[in-house]
Amino acid sequence: MVELKVFCYEASVVGLRYVANPTASPFRRSIWLMLLLAGAAFTTFQIQDRIRWYWSYPKNMNIRVEHKEELRFPTVTICNENRISRKTADERGKCIVLLTVRFYKSIQQTEEHLTNRSVSMVI
In what helix (H) or strand (E) does residue 83 lie, and over which residues does it extend? Predict the structure, then answer.
């Protein structure tokens, strides 16, 4: 019962805290209870009325196909808004390729070094 009172005081339903207020008169609490019940009943009525209206709404579609002999092509403007030029992109691409090649060569050299070292330790 205590948890219900705490819920009534902390809930965002407007009149619920007044219904659960033990210091208010029974008349005042019953008025708030009637208002809450009336609001809930009206909300329920509106929801079911809108659902019934939605499902009974008649669907009407008119489809008309037109064939045009000639269409006006829209004006197209191509703007280059890149902040980097083709030359700079090519240079950076070459740099990335060189770094990638150097990276793989260093991995390959490390693997060869480790392989040679382990072979010499086994012998």
Answer: none
Token code pair at residue 20: 């659960």
Helix (H, G, I), strand (E, B) or coil at 2: helix
Which amino acid type is present at position 41? A
Chain CA centroid to CA 60, Å: 33
- Tokens representing residue 24 in the block: 């208010």
pLDDT in tens, 28-43: 889 988 999 999 999 9
Note the pTM of the prediction, 2 decimals.
0.42
CB-CB contact of 24 with 5 (8 Å) = no
Rounded to the nearest 5 percent, the helix, strand and coil shares of the chain are 65, 0, 35
Distance CA 10, CA 7 (A): 5
- What span, in angstroms and rounded, lies between the C-alpha atoms of 38 and 85? 70
